[in-house]
Each structure stands twice: as structure tokens, then as C-alpha cells.
């Protein structure tokens, strides 16, 4: 959706993976603009309201798939109801935001939150030539990376012309004639013709919960690795569920299309009589801001410290290609590993074109339980247009490996 | 070197990783233009000839590192001694070739051999605006990939303007006034102002062999995983050695900078009293021709058939980014795996910008013994500028996985 707002994707319809018509051609009775208000898990029925006619009906089921997704966090702050304050969840949010930008000839945008969607929206609004302010509560944006890497992203945001406000939190919104005019923090007020809230999501699991389907501490519907809930005949998939983190073993909710897609497929295979299992997640994610690519997998230092895990870290700034090759740009890679064994625990990458997808090498190594030494001498690909002779992930691994087995230094 | 010839890299000195002066500053007595003619492994001396003064001297050693590299194959064909026939091995080959192109105002080039260097040189010569003919002995170039993927590369070579001659072999060279004028095959004669031989390499191990250092069937010096030869006090590293292929367990010689670099480092660590081991290789390699990226790891179908290994293969044509995202281009991924277990055996990739480095995901999975099903549901990174929701390597894995455990179909 940010790429549509930014004009990189022209056709909103191209964002629709499959239209209702395409589903119907496959014999699937898709009902858009219908809301399920209640699930009766004993009788195996759902109460459905047609949002057009407002009529209710009861539909029976043999198997029910709950795929209600996630909903964006909308903080209960003074002025939040003003016009021109948007979230990015549904296609209609995107279209409404686009329309508002044009109709009200917005010049100044304020984005609240510097996670994935926040920085993607910052790029989009720069492309639309808006004066763009991004307010973030911590010192560095992208809190799923460590602060040292987040500060690199701060730098690029500023360089590209974003008015970056860190260590401040939105506390309210000012409005005139029902339309937002500014975002207030405890320290200042930032003029805004439009505001975009990018404060993360939580699983949309209330409907399931009300039907007695168990929901975990993360707020996501509890499913087994075949996507079945504890209630007979009900399974769930996607952003509304909670899933096992393969590194921590904890149950977490992660709202990402790639995971939702996998879970949907597994759910479908199992319902159709097949047998497929979801292995769990590593916390892999990628995005970009302008030409800066940002990716992460596993656990970062902050997550390790919070869990009291004894770890080593290796970090390197290298180049995406051989230094002498045109188009080479800077890449920073950081890896974390168990201090005692050297077993990889996580990786983070920030760098120019070609940097980001290297996270898949780290994700695969993490899934496989490789050590930093395995990674250092792994037979990865090299040619000048693609990499230095030692891939940056291997140099980071080498630096981390030096500390493996050494006693922890007191901080 | 091809990128220097093509003008993508301007400064020949930038290709020198470390100059003799830089070594000397570190206290290392580097002698360029000196040739070791003989090793006396019993007395621990080498006989050295100064190629400038032509004087010989004997130098003692405690430890000797043989790093003589590989030499390009030069076929013993009629006319091979003519001027204007080049190989690409040393920097001075590159500089001489560059000079020849200019001095003789070459218009027509013939490349003999369509492996990595052959297609890289084809790009370089197109950039120099030469009429470029590439003669290759098989139906498809890039024999380290299967023919179906090689044919995709054939197509791009032709599209970009290379006169591609397949299924023919050079049998001789025509010359006038001592300078090459054509390359002859059994079928035709191809006019050439300059010829570049790109027919692979073999380990330069004669010096070691003459000193009684054992050389394996691949022609490479036999070393253990610490890079020690069977002779006390003599180790070897790089293209002159043979190494263990982690998938087949066979000893092979592979001349790649990435492997040579790792071996050199391991050799140095061990000589300096440390302890490092070379794990072996997967046969990972990458290159590009113009915008087409080409990569491979592990075993291709031809290699599996030759070894009588019962395998499955999965192949997909997908896109490097989300289909709707600008800059998305075609990518073909092929994976091979054990039929019984689904354990990955190899991967090949041909596609547009961003395609090639995905081979590292497959190399890491291969090293780790992952199955196609592991790969299919692995938590790899996704965002529209980087990948479709399912990374192409995962779709290829899925297609292969369908055949795992099924009986082999008679061919």
C-alpha cells in the first residue's frame, strides 16, 4: 500500500491477489461486505450480517477457518477522531488516504511511528513531495533492529529530507473544522495536513475468543502446527494467530504476509485431507527506505539481554559488491550467537541495493542451527558484481566468532 | 579482468588486493618476477630464479606454502601460436589483450568456450563494441548448469548481439603475418581479429609434484582440512589444491577466488599457531551476462545422472520482486533433491537483477542438510521490492517436494 501511495505502483487492482470473481470461478462462494458477528462452535454455525442490506443470516459449517487478520493500533488520544488521521490496514484506508491527499492539497504530513510501515510511508510521502515529519518514541527508528543499526536508518531518513523527531511520543492531535492540523508531543506541536498512524498491529481475535476459541498471551488465536484451534472443526491462519518462535520457543504474534500465506496454505492442505505442518518462525523481515535496505532475523541484542541469554555479537561495515566494482555501496551486518557454542541467534542488515536479501542466508543458517564458524567458511557465491570475496555476512560471523567461548566481559 | 576489459572498472591497480609495497610494510619479503624452479623437501630449500637478472639462488624455509594457482587450458591446435590469441590468467594477459584491441583496431572477436570467463568476456567485448562470436562445444553455454537453464542463457547472449555458435569445437586457427585471422571449427571458419581462449583451468601442481608432494586424480595438490600436504613443512592453498566436495564426498579442483581466499586464511592461521579447518566446498558459483544473473550450487541433473543418484527436480519461473512492483524481472530456479528423503542436492538460478545471490540460501540449506519441505516453509524475507510472497527458491522446492517419496518414473 505505501508503494501505491508513493506512485511506484499505479494500479490498485494489481495489489489484489485474487478477486472475488476469480474465487467464484473456482466454485468458492465469496461474500465481501459481510461481517461474521458470532460463531456458535457447538452448533457449527456463524451469524453473518450483510453490510449492504444490514440483514442477518445464519450459515452452517463443517469446518471453519478464522482468518481475521490483525488490526492497527489506534491510541486513545485527545483529537484522534479528527478527519485526516489515517491508519494503513485495508485497501479502503489506502484509497481514502490517497483521496484526502489530493482533495485537501496536503503539504505537510506527520507519520506517527517509525517501524516498517512508518518508514515505507515516509518514502511514499517524499515521493508525493510532501513535507514529511516522522515522530518516533525511541532514539532510533526500526525497533526490531538494535539501536546502532537503527541510527544508520535515522541518518538516511534525515538525508533524504524527512523531518525526523525521535524520543518523542504523540500525546494528542489539534484540529480545525474537524480536520487535523497538528500532532502534539510532550515537547512540541508539529503542523500536519494529514497524519498517518503506524504503531503496529494486534491480532484480531475477539470473534474467536467470544466463541470460546482459546487465545494466547500474545492476543493471537492458539493453533497447533496443523493450524487447528482447540475447538473441534475450527482452524485459524494468518495475522490473527500466535505462532512458535523457533529461537526462543515462545508463542508470538507476527503480522507478515509471508507467514500468513504459509499458514493459509498449510491450513488448506490439512482441511483438504493432506498433511502439512507449520514449522514456526524466525522473525525474518525486510523493508527499504529509498535506496537503504533493512532486514533482520532471529534475536537482536535487546531481545537477548531481556531474556538474559549469554551471547556474542559481530558487526562489520563492508560493501555490497567488490569495492572497485561500479554500484558497490555500504552494507552493515550484525550477527548474534550463543557465547558458549557460537550457535547463531540472529542477524541484522542495513545497506544499499543488494544488501537486504542476504538476510535469507542468515535465516537459513539460523533455522539449521549453524555456528558462526560454519557461516564464516560456508561456500557462498562470489563475483565482483555481487559481493566482496568474503560475503559481509561471513565477515560479521568471523568477528563474532573471535569472542565465542571467551568469558563475558562485565558491562 | 573481464570488467576491466569492458571498461566497467577503470583502474587496473584497483584489482590488486595488496601491492608488494603493502606486504613489505608488514615485514613480508615479497619477490615478484621470481620463479621457484625446484623444491627440496628434505633439505627444506627452494631454488629461485630472478626473472630479471636470471640469477639463481637457494632459499631455506621452515614452512613452505605452495600457492601456485591454476593455469588456463591452452589446446594444442594448429595455429595456436599466432599473435592475437589470448587467455585470461594473469594481469599481464589482461593488459596485453587490452593493448592488442587498441593497437590492431580489432573489430571482430571470437571467444572459444562458454563457461564463466567466456560469457563475462562476451559482455566485455560487446561493451567495447566488437562484433563478438562465442563458440561453445555443447548445445547450451554454462555447462555447470543443466541444459534447460543453459538454453536460457543462450537466448540472452543472442538477444544482446553475441554471434553464438553452439555444438561446435575449435579445431585450428588461421593467421596472416603471424596474427590470427579466423577460428576454424569442423563446420566453418569464423573471422577474428582477436581470439580469447576460455576453456577452463587446471591446478598448477607440477612444482609440488616434482618435489614428491602427492597430487590427486583431479591434478590438485592433496591437502588435509588444515591445508597441510603429506610432506612435512609444506602446505598448499588455493587453485593448485584439491578439496572435498561436501555433497559427493569426492576430491575436486575448483578454481574460485572465494575458495582460495578461505584456504589461504586457514593455512595462515594454522602456520601462525592457530587452529582452523576448511570444511570443503559445495560448488557454489555466480556470474552475470549483462543483466542476466547466473548461479549454481551442489549437483545439477547431469551430475546426478552420471553418479546414478535417484533424485527429484523442481523448477519454476517466477519473478524477482512482487509481480506488480517496478523493476521485477523473470527468475528461473531449479532444485534437485534425493528422491527418498527430499534432502537438497543442488540448485541453479538464472534471472534478472536480484536473482543470483539467492543461491546463497540454497547453498546454506545444502550445507545444513535441509529437505525441500524445510526450504518450502522456511521463514525467508519478503517485501514487494525484494521478492514475491513465496520466494522463488521456495516455489521450486515445493514443486520438487511433490515428487519426493514417489517411485521413479521410467525414462
Report on this model:
Two copies of one chain form a homodimer. Chain A has helices at residues 2-5, 20-25, 91-103, 116-127, 147-159, 206-210, 257-271, 301-306, 359-367, 372-376, 392-401, and strands at 34-40, 45-50, 56-60, 64-66, 70-72, 85-87, 108-112, 131-135, 163-165, 170-176, 179-185, 189-191, 194-197, 201-203, 221-222, 234-236, 241-244, 251-252, 285-289, 292-298, 311-319, 330-338, 344-351. By secondary structure, the first copy, chain A, is α/β, with parallel strands linked by helices. In chain A, the strands form seven sheets. In chain A, strands 6-13-7-8-9 form a five-stranded parallel β-sheet, covered by helices on one side. In chain A, strands 19-20-23-22-21 form a five-stranded antiparallel β-sheet, sandwiched between helices. In chain A, strand 2 (45-50) and strand 3 (56-60) form a beta hairpin. The radius of gyration of chain A is 23 Å and the shape is globular. The model of chain A has no long low-confidence stretch (mean pLDDT 96).
Amino acid at each position: 500500500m505505501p508503494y501505491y501511495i508513493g506512485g511506484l505502483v499505479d494500479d490498485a487492482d494489481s495489489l489484489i491477489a485474487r478477486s472475488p470473481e476469480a474465487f467464484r470461478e473456482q466454485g468458492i462462494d465469496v461474500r465481501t461486505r459481510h461481517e461474521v458477528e458470532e460463531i456458535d462452535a457447538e452448533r457449527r454455525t456463524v451469524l453473518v450480517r450483510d453490510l449492504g442490506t444490514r440483514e442477518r443470516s445464519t450459515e452452517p459449517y463443517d469446518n471453519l477457518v478464522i482468518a481475521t487478520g490483525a488490526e492497527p493500533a489506534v491510541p486513545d488520544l485527545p483529537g484522534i477522531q479528527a478527519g485526516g488521521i489515517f491508519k494503513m490496514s485495508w485497501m479502503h484506508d489506502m484509497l481514502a488516504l490517497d483521496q484526502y491527499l489530493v482533495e485537501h492539497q496536503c503539504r505537510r504530513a506527520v507519520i506517527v511511528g517509525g517501524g516498517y510501515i512508518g518508514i515505507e510511508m515516509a518514502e511514499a510521502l517524499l515521493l508525493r513531495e510532501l513535507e514529511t515529519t516522522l515522530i518516533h518514541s525511541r532514539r532510533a527508528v526500526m525497533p526490531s533492529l538494535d539501536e546502532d543499526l537503527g541510527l544508520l536508518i535515522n541518518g538516511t531518513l534525515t538525508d533524504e529530507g524527512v523531518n525526523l523527531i525521535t524520543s518523542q511520543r504523540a500525546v494528542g492531535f489539534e484540529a480545525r473544522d474537524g480536520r487535523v492540523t497538528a500532532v502534539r508531543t510532550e515537547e512540541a506541536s508539529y503542523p500536519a495536513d494529514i497524519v498517518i498512524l503506524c504503531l503496529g498491529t494486534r491480532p484480531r481475535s475477539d470473534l474467536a475468543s467470544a466463541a470460546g476459541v482459546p487465545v494466547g498471551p500474545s492476543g493471537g488465536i492458539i493453533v497447533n502446527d496443523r493450524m487447528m484451534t482447540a475447538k473441534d472443526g475450527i482452524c485459524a491462519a494468518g495475522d490473527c494467530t500466535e505462532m512458535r518462535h523457533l529461537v526462543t520457543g515462545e508463542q508470538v504474534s507476527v503480522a507478515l504476509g509471508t507467514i500468513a500465506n504459509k499458514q493459509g496454505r498449510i491450513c488448506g492442505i490439512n482441511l483438504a485431507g493432506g498433511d502439512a505442518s507449520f514449522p514456526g518462525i524466525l522473525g525474518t523481515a525486510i523493508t527499504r527506505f529509498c535506496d537503504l535496505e533493512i532486514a533482520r532475523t532471529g534475536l537482536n541484542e535487546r531481545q537477548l539481554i531481556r531474556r538474559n541469554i549469554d551471547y556474542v555479537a559481530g558487526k562489520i561495515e563492508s560493501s555490497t559488491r567488490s569495492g572497485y566494482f561500479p554500484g558497490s555501496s555500504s552494507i552493515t551486518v550484525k550477527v548474534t550467537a550463543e557465547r558458549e557454542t557460537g550457535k547463531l541467534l540472529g542477524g541484522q542488515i542495513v545497506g544499499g541495493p543488494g544488501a537486504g536479501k542476504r538476510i535469507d542466508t542468515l535465516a537459513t543458517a539460523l533455522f539449521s542451527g549453524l555456528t558462526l564458524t560454519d557461516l564464516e567458511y560456508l561456500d557462498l557465491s562470489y563475483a565482483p558484481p555481487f559481493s566482496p570475496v568474503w560475503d559481509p555476512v561471513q565477515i560479521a560471523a568471523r568477528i563474532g566468532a573471535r569472542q565465542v567461548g571467551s568469558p563475558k566481559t562485565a558491562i
